[in-house]
Amino acid sequence: MTEIDRFEDVPNEPGRYVYRIKSTGHSSARLGGCEVCGEHVTEVFLQVEGLTFDNDGELAITYADCRDLFGHRGCLLEGRKLQ
Fold first, then answer.
1. Are the beta carbons of 45 and 23 closer than 8 angstroms?
2. Domain spans of the chain?
3. For 41, which of 4, 28, 79, 82 could close a Cys bridge (C-beta 3.0–4.6 Å)?
């Protein structure tokens, strides 16, 4: 599996934000409140943001100037950058 395969719905063009999200298996009692809304979270999710770029004719992912967030799944999905 390549790095780009770890992301969902990757557009075949550079300069687009891509995301992956997964449950941590923990609540905010262990990981703190949602980083989007600040509220308690029963099941904390981690969302990783990447940015596509052209690497000598192949689509690749960078994490430069991207952010990872912990929180409610709904809050993380709503907070994604629109393109």
1. yes
2. 3-78
3. 28
